[in-house]
Structures are given as C-alpha cells and as structure tokens.
Amino acid sequence: MEQILANGVYLGAQYAMIALGLTLIFALMNVLNFAHGQMYVLGGFVTYTFYGQLGFPFVAGLVMSCVTLFILGALIERFLFAPVIRRSSRDESTMLLAAGLAFFFDAVILLLFGEKQRGVPKIVNGVFNWDFRLIMPYDRILICVLAILSIVSFILFMQYSKTGRALRALAQDRTAAQLMGVNVDRYSMIGFALGAMLAGLVGGLLVTITGVNLGMGGPTSIKAFMMVMIGGAGVISGAIAGGIILGFLEAIGLAVLSQYGDITYLMIFVSLMIFLAIRPQGLMGKPWG
Amino acid sequence: MKRRVVLKSAVAAVALSAFAAGGAWAENPVLKIGFVGVTSGPAAAWGISNQRSMETRAAWINETGGYTIGDTTYDIEIVSFDDQKDPKRAIAGMEKMAQEGIHYVVGPNVDDGAAAVRPVAEANGIMYFPYAFPKELYTAPASNAVLGMVANYQSGPAIYKYLMENKGVKTVAFIAANESDPLSQRDGGVAAAKELGLEVVSDNVTYQVDTTDFTPVLTPVLRTRPDLLVLSGVSPANAPQLIRSARELGYQGLISTETAQDAQVLQEGAGDLANGFISVGGASTPELASDAMREFVKRYTDMFGEYNDESNTKVYALEYILETLKANPAAIDDVNAFQATMDGFEAPNPYMVGDAKLRYVGSTSFGQKRQVAVPLVVNVYQDGAFETLFVAEVD
Fold first, then answer.
1. pLDDT score of B19
2. Cβ of B44 and A218 within 8 Å?
3. Is residue A282 a contact partner of residue A232, using CB atoms and an 8 Å limit?
4. What is the ipTM of this complex?
C-alpha cells in the first residue's frame, strides 16, 4: 500500500504539471494545443543538450528549457495563433494549426536530435528502501518535490502577481478584462508563453527519470487531455486534480490489476467515459464553458 | 507583348531546368527500391535505422558509379514511406510502391503491418523484406516475404540455453508491451523457455507502449524473484527505462531481450545499471566487421551525424536484393525469377571478414528459404559498449 501511495503521488505530481500548461492555454485563448506534448519533448531535449551533452549544471539546463519554451511559446502565439484567431472565428482553425505545429515539431526534433531515445546522468544516486515496503530512487523523490514546488509557485504566481491576476481576469471574461484596461494581446502572449514554459519545465525535469525521445509528444498530449477532461477544461485547480487522480488511478491499477494483463488504461478509459457522460464539464469545470 | 515574353521565358526556363535535371540523372538509369516502415512515433528508431542504412548504401553506390546488373549500370533510388506503425498506412505504402512500379521493398518493421501488406505485395509482384516474425508470412503458400533478421524464436532458445548452462538460470519472468509484436514474442519466448525446462514465474504483466515510468509496472514481476527477466520485443526507447527501474527496485538477476539495442541509448538511459544486459546484437562485431562494414559505418555517421547499432543488421536487406538481382538480371521486374534464384543463391558477404556468404536460409523454421542469413550475435552490454557473448548461425 505504501508503494502504491508513493507511486500515485509521484505520478500525480508530474501529470498535474503536464496538464497545467495545457489548461492555462485553453483557459486564456480557447485553444486546444495539440502540440503541448511536443513542447514537453522539446523541453526535455533542451535540458538533455545543456545538462547531458554540454555539461552545464542540471538547474542551468532546466532554466534553458524554460527560457527556450517561453520564447518559443511567445513567438508561436504572436505570429501564428493570434493572427488565426483574429481572422477566423471557427475553433477548428486553431485546432488544425495546433495539429500542424505538432507535426512540424516532430520533424524538427527528428532533424535536430535524431530518432534515438536520449537520457541524461542521474542527478542523485541511491534508492530509498524502507524494508522493501516502499522503494523509491532518490532522484524520483527529488523530482516529485520539485514538481510539487513548481505547482505551488505557479498557483502563488497566478494568485498574487499582477500578471497572474491579469491572466485570471482574461480567462474569466476576455471582454470585461479588456474594458478594465488589461492589454489582452500582451497577456494572451504571456499566457501562451507560460503554458509552453510549463511544458518545457516538466520535460526538463522528467528527462532525468524517463529520458526523452521523438515519439513521446503524442501520447503525452493524450494523457494531458485526459487530465484536463477529468478536472475540467480551463480550470487550473481542475488540471491539478485531474493529474493527481490519473496518477493514483494508474498506480492503483498497475498494482491491483496487473495479474489480469494490461487492463489499467482500459478501466481508466471506461471510467472516464462513464464519468463524462454524467459530468461532461469535468470535476471543476462549468457546464456553460 | 510583355506577357508573351514572360511566358516564353518561363517555358524556356522550365525546359532548361528539365533538361538539366534529366542530364544529371541521364548518366545511369534509376533502379527504385522501396522502404515501408515506421519512421515516426515511439518506435521510429527501428524504421529510421532501416531507411538511413538504405540511403547510406544507395548514396555510396551512386557515388562510386552505380550498380551493374546484367548489362546495365543503375543508380539506386530509395523511395520511403512512413507507415506510422499502422497496418492501414502500411497497406497504403505498399500500394504506393506498386503504383511506382517498384518490385523490391524493405519493411514493414512490425508484425501487423507485415501481415497487412501481404495481399498487396503478392498481387502486385513485390518481394518485401519485413522485420516481423509471424511464421505464416514466410511459410508456403506465402511466397513474397523474406525475413530480414533473426527471429526471436530462433535467438531466444539459444540465449536461454546459454544462460542455463553458463549462469545457472532456473526461473524466468517475461514482461512485454501490450502490442502485437512484443506479445507474440513473449508467447514464443515462454514456449521456448518451458521446452528447455525453465520455470516461468511471471508471464502476464504488460505495459502501455507509451509508459515512461516502469517502477509500478515492474514491482509485481520482480516480487517473483526470477533468475532471468526477459524484456520481450522491447523497443530501444523502453529498454533503458525498464532496466533502470528493475535495478533501482533491487533486482540483481539477469536481464535479456531478443531485439537489437543501441549501446549509446543504454548508456544514456541506464548508465552502469545496464551492465550485464544481454541482447541480440546487430549482425556485426568488431571481430566480424570487414573494411566495407567500417566504411559503411563511417558513411552513415557522416550522412546522419551518428550511427545506429541496429544498422549492423539493417545494412543487409538492400545488399541481398541487389546481389540477387545481379545473380539473375531477369528478376529486375519479375519476382518469380527472383524467387527461383533464391534457392541456390550465394554471394560473398562484403560486411564480414573471412569467406562468409550472403545466402537465403529459413528451411528449418519455414520450410522454404525465406530469410536472409545474418550472423546471430548475442551481446552483453558493459560500460558503454557491447561485448560479444556468442555468435551462432540460423538454419
């Protein structure tokens, strides 16, 4: 039981971080960013390059992932999403753009980093072993703590900073925010950049545990969408709740159902379908959008 | 008037460029060889190493004047199609090859894709070289598929037997991704292990192919305390993570797989924790590699930045196709002639030292010669490189 709980907390923390960026972008711009997983992968590759290849400290690699993805996110919003949103009122226009971006990033990643799985040296050696009841490598514990700290910092930033308040106002009512003097264009760009930065940050954190490869983007996006659906689209607390719930469902399923084969995700998908049929807006979303 | 001048200039430019392009290619006629396989997604490494091996070899041939078959010297062009590991896409890829008049295709990389393209290949006179293991692809009445590597049911028993005799292995556990290839390889491995008298202590734990943290997946398997943990059909992307998680969970037994791996990937993903990991290597070792093999590795590295160890095996399919065509030029657009040539075909193996031969094998496993003969090299990973555990032959 101790192992299941620990796995659940660890998986939940990383999943929540992945979902945060996606839901932030959706909340601000009503954009389903299908390239979120690819942004996560890019973040992993930036940390891989700086920490694993060039020998910079791990923290420097993480910072570079954040900076790179922040700038990339800002550019994407300013030169791609903003013009499309301005010119087209159809939601599918931004969806197609996001899907195209995902394919584009896959191609760029293949060109720059190749097809192989990449990994970096462990940041902490050793394994915590409590009488074989709870086994957890120290690097996983550290990454879990860092993920939780990042989530708390993000919540505090959104709650108390001027930028955070502006972003929340934008998410609640774009027109009202504009009437109250919020520079909508600027904060849309900052919000998108922050969402991309969160993807880069979690990619950089997890490259120390899971490594990174070209093909991780799509499945990561799918999991992120699942978490957002569970928690409620566009709700920060919902993304965190969705991530933690998915993490615990996975940990419990893998421990309890493993003897029946790989049915954990089958059960999760069935539960999700039933749940969405009853509560389509997710746990914390509003039915009116 | 102005418009007419512009039009004339445009027509002249198009004609000139077409002439120039034609001139560039007119030196040799082009022989197109296809590749249909996975070059995107988590298993991209399998197909990309295929595609890049073919492109490297083709560029090498073209640079040195082309490849002579009968009285004609050809430039080789590789036509590639990413099937995204989706059987429907694989069928579309094989249909594309048929439309382009291609008769020889390397791939697909996985079982369901290889099975899906069989009707298209047989209906359109295409010989294809899959990296997939279902025996029905290579057993009569199937005729057009040639296994491009050593199958797990050929390498698995050899590895288990070696480990029983040399490492005292008595119990074994299997873990596989929840996909057709790994699952069929697991079932084949379980059957082979039981036949050899090993006790199978766990064989029902599987994982999603996109799993990134294997600690929860491996925990129930390692509770059975096997002497040997077999990672059935594991992809190069997942192998380091599985090894790392197993070792971090305190597992000290042996770990093996029947798929080819890459030493650099293992080093980056698992570091010293991968020491002792046993895998089926590419069909080359430093002791086996000829000068041509070293030249191939150098050219591949120059073209793509880094080499992929899997290409030690994947260099062979194109060579087999071209050498067989050279042996019987009539086969260039007639796969029946190709098949007739396969039985008695033999040519020097340029990638191995000594008097090794290229020849078709598979009579024991498939009842007909539908497999390329590449050495079965079993490696053990140690400190960033593979060391040869033993070398064997199929058939």
1. 46
2. no
3. yes
4. 0.72
